[in-house]
What does this fold into?
Amino acid sequence: MIVVVNLIIAHSHPHFRFILQNIIRSYQGFRVVGKTSNYAGLMQMATALKPDIIIADIELPGMKGFAALQQMVADINQPKIILSWRYHHQPFISEAIAAGCAGCIIHDANPAEYHLAIKQAMKGEVFYCSQTERVMNGAKNLPGTGNVPSQILSETQVKIMYCIWLGYNSKGIALAMDLTKETVDTYRKALRKIVGSLSSAAIYSFLKNNGLV
It folds into this structure.
């Protein structure tokens, strides 16, 4: 029996809400039960719908600091909040963590990281996307620049590796990445040459050894 995870997306930008909803809907067992553009709407919706997960923009209109998030978690059936942020918000990540957020993920993180963030939050674990971890560790690298040299892996290759690690087949990766299945198959062949194997264990080891998880 599949356990359904109910989510609310709270973000001021309609395009972001649309894209994130499509990402979440592509995964079995995840259901978007509501979307809102401001904090007042989030409070009303969360009270009525009792979601498991809330993905909230750090700049959500009407949300006055992280104390508002703490109060909401206390008042509304203990939902788990994953905070979405942009790079100019780096100084506030520590505040979000102290406020009890279940995770921090940058707006343009790949679909696989959103999937993993939700799964980790449901397990009661805190999730930080790869960009968030770089900031927390004091790294000065920009997105897409990790310990893997750019001449070895492109950003698209890294994202596809995440998807393979999470168990997606080529059709699922094509949907998550907005690519054709034929293009995904070409990437898979190239990654197999680099990693040696596309087993979950091999992919995870490669990502971990190169500071990508």
